[in-house]
Structures
1.
Amino acid sequence: MRKISFFDTTLRDGEQTPGVNLNLREKVEIARELALMGVDTIEAGFPASSQGSFNAVLEVAKEIKGVQVAGLCRAVAGDVQRAWEALRYADAPRIHIVIATSERHMLYKLRMSEEEVTEAAIKAIKTAKSYCSSVQFSAEDASRSDPAFLCRILYKAVAAGATVVNIPDTVGYATPAEYAALIAYVREHVDNIDKARIAAHCHNDLGMATANTLAAVSAGAEQVEVTINGIGERAGNAALEEVAMALNTRADFYDCEHNINTTHINRVCRLVSKYSGLEIAAGKAIIGDNAFRHQSGIHQHGVLTDRETYQIMTPESIGRYSGEQFVLGKLSGWHAFGDKLAELGFHLPENEIKSLFERFKLLADRKKEVTAKDIIAIVEGKMGDVKPVVELENYQILSANNVNSTATVCLDRGGERLQMAAIAGGPIDAAYKAITEMLGLELSLESYAIKAVTEGADALGEVTVRVKYNGSVYLGKGVATDVIKSSMLAYINAVNRIYADMIIKE
Ligand code: KIV
Ligand code: ZN
């Protein structure tokens, strides 16, 4: 059976999604989860593009073991050297070199001839090769390149030492049949192609990224380049969860194996959604809220009689917990709570379980039944928290129709007790105004979203905010049964990320 390797570029192409700004800690945590999930290569960033990206590649290379770590660079010596400086501590480093090969890109973007592009690519590959054995060459905009030139440059790239050659559909223009034909053409016309693996990297501008990636696999590609939730430039990349589940569910058709443990999908997709601030659409394949729901009575009856009448995959195969029943109560001890966390896929150290248990007890006091969803919300609300500088002590809100609202908020800032009252059109507005004035920071609220994460009148409400400070946008999340409280917690969470950034920069 052919083995397909998964190259995840959530931290590089995925981070190029407009509005997404992952911090170092979030990137390392995502990388850790990707490695646990069985991804073969993690592209952790583009080291020469910024100090932040360099640090991310360096940290992932140092901390995440047992997986290959890649860094992107342009075909210039400085970029290659910078990539190597970031990658050299990795268990298995890979330098990834990209240069455009389509006429349009060469003419208008690079202002280089075919010969100049080829020379730059070969020089960069040879430099990279002097640092590490695994070198990937990407011919940007390959699907709109002259196939004959593409084959000539790929031949020279492999001869210079490239171990993976990537044929990106950079602008998401190709159809599955065209893309498969291009992969087949390369296999046929690049004489030394047996010395390298062919990679497929597809963008989703026409909604065909996953279909194109799978068509490439059928045509002989052995590496798929994907992102979690399909995030990425413009309309995004092929989604890891879609490609992996298609290869599994239609193993009869694709007949190949891979290392992805799909039971991690639900958790990793939710983690990336949380850190990127990009909600997963209800109808999103594999991972959307509706992916395993049946509305029509005929469908429901069919599934109850024989699941496979309308379900081609099980929720459990992606690690989705389908039970809604009562799982724990306020009399449950922390051991039982820890066991339930493990059952839900969260294997955490004792000190973290104990700290989460405190939150569970507070919730169990307020809610009659604590469900699996509540527990997941508690864990995810806490996961990735920065060490708080500011904490909500207490608050009082006065709100009625036809009059302004008043908020009195009391905060603890590193041991110092602060209090402020403010008046505004609505209760949340007033609370945010009080917090902003009290902290003396110039903050502007860029976006605010609220959703119920559990069912019923006592549901947990989750608020996501984006707050702008000093030119950067910071994400904040808050979860509570009271939506005004979750709104304040989200705002304070964003503030704590600002403080964490200030501490790193000091
Ligand atoms: O879309 C693209 O062409 C890329 C390359 C860097 C591989 O992201
Ligand atoms: Zn891309």
2.
Amino acid sequence: MKLSRLPFLLILLAGSTGIFVAQIPGNAPYKNPKTPIEQRVEDLLRRMTAPEKADMLSGSGWMESQPNARLGIPAIKMADGPMGVRNWRGASAITNAAATSPVLSTAFPAGIGMGASWDVELVQREGRVVAQEVKALGRNMILGPTVNINRQPLWGRNFEGYGEDPYLSARMGVAYIQGVQSENVIPSVKHFAANNQEFERHRIDETIDVRALHEIYFPAFRAAVQEAGVWSVMNAYNKVNGLWCAENPMLLSQTLQKRWGFKGFVISDWGSTYSTAATVAAGMNLEMPGGEPMRVWFAKPETGKDGNGAGWLTRDKVLAAVSAGQLKQEAVDDAARRILRVMFSAGLFDAAPAAAGEVDTPEQRALARTAATESIVLLKNEGGALPLGAPKIRSVAVIGPSAAVARTGGGGSSLVRPKYAVTALDGIKEAAGTQTQVGYALGVAMQGDDAGQETPQALARLRNEAVELARKSDAAVIVVGYSYKLESEGFDRPSMDLPAGQDELIEAVAAANKNTIVVIAAGAPVTMTRWIGRVPAVVQAWYGGQEAGHAIGDILFGAQNPSGKLPVTFPKQWPDSPAYGHYPGENLRTAYTEGIYVGYRGFDQRNVEPLFPFGHGLSYTKFDYSGLKITPAKVAAGQPVQVTMQVRNSGSRAGAEIVQLYVHDVKSSVDRPLKELKGFRRVMLNPGEARTVSFTLDRSALSFYSTAKDEWVAEPGAFEVWIGASSRDIRLKGAFDLAQ
Ligand code: BGC
């Protein structure tokens, strides 16, 4: 440094660290938005002391990273997601649903419902709106999307993710991230990797073979990194193959960083760290929570009892690990570098994180309603039971524990408090208009919600009231399912069965009224064996966010055509699931013995008939598939395959169809699933309208992960392309050859 510059620098003695630090000139390159990002990062890093760098590695509170006043580094201000901005009550307070001054935001359908829309563009718009609300609330990071795979139906958080298929999850995750990042808000794709059960989520050690990791549990994360350029990844609580995800070099440095080229930072899940040197060296960059809120929380006996770990990446511990030679300074620098890179990319140094934008605008409401509508899956519709309405149906009995209460989302960190929420009952009344009378009876209380209504006498009285109402109505709609207290982060569902009394209620009402429609508000499949044969129609409504009621009304009365398709297989019963017998594990270990045969891959492999297959969803109109063309018939290695076909709306009303493309490898040196989803399109068609749909299959669509070669391999030979309206309703088949 030239001596002549000295007057511009005020040399200070930083009391606590005992080293000299310089005041930063206003024209420092990192402060200039025109300086390229990498130069800004390196310039700032050069000016940071070792303790200042170490400070970057842990939070300052429950939802903030550490700011640095000397250098002008702001805190990253986080908010939970992904289905909206979670209720949160102030700068560093622990978020919870019972907060006294709640933060209100738009509640979108749970991830599983967004997955059921198969609408990539919709999910991208959702991401954008969520990010706008994050900013409106003065924050700059959203903890989502969740892209963990629905491995088994009991996982308490199945509702958060996009279902069982890695390709669909990847498309949805990428869209959400692109939406969020387009608003300069930092997303955090979570939970890396294989957070597939809540049972002992902090201690469970999952044995997963490399092929299943790459083919099933990784693809959505890989796409987030390589296609969306995601800025941050959150590690999972669990262990994978013997090591906690926060200190797992195979997951973080080898896969995320080296193999996929991830440039952003890894954030810990809240309380998922158990070491200092091993964690930083493995590639975990920012430990959350931090500061005093972390200490208060961690001192509580239940925090430790649950198996949380925290407080390992504090300044003192990081500096001590470096001085003891256990941790390289470069690893600390790399963590700080990654965090700063993202902060510069998201403009955190340049724009004041002041509140901008609004919450609960007409556009946001409209998008929430569209999303809720598109998420609904018509599972069964015999004899045209749906849509309801005059002249056939002049009175409807609306019944059930989720009819007059809006079940907007599942429980835990993703639960949003919206400004309002439309119940199914209100939505149905609105849709029914003046032509159809709507009556209401509770039928049965939601399990655990009202002990007074769970006595045998109360149960009988409630059920009789419902049966009486159903008997004198032209149709009955029973809205059943779970509540956020019964299906939630933190624990798994004890079984696939509906909560107490709901099956019996459906049976009793169905016996009284043959036009009984069951609407299910739940985040995962439920057992329907007792009554599925006795009701003409079943609708899967998931947790539809604040506009769920309107969407249910619109679908039931035909104002909207149902177009959702299942992003997850609905088994007849839990023992049919490929994960049955390999969950929840013994002695804190669970072996993913089913390997790559997750979801429909497993049902196909074992030839088990599901209740409703992956990709299934009915419509009020009809679609014809024709004209499959695959070019070229023999494709050179590395060249794409073009697939086209026509879909035509041959019914009498407008509607969207979700056309699905599955690849079948005719002959392979390794076991492969019978079929794998490798493309889909949501096509909106007027009656009589036809559209050509095209797909491009590249090498990745034909490949499997070879454990021998430790890479993706597309073997030469014959492949088939199966085009279906569901994974088990294949309408067109064609073939091509992949040349040597
Ligand atoms: C959850 C995360 C969440 C975090 C912060 C954890 O318990 O697993 O998904 O983002 O808490 O609330």
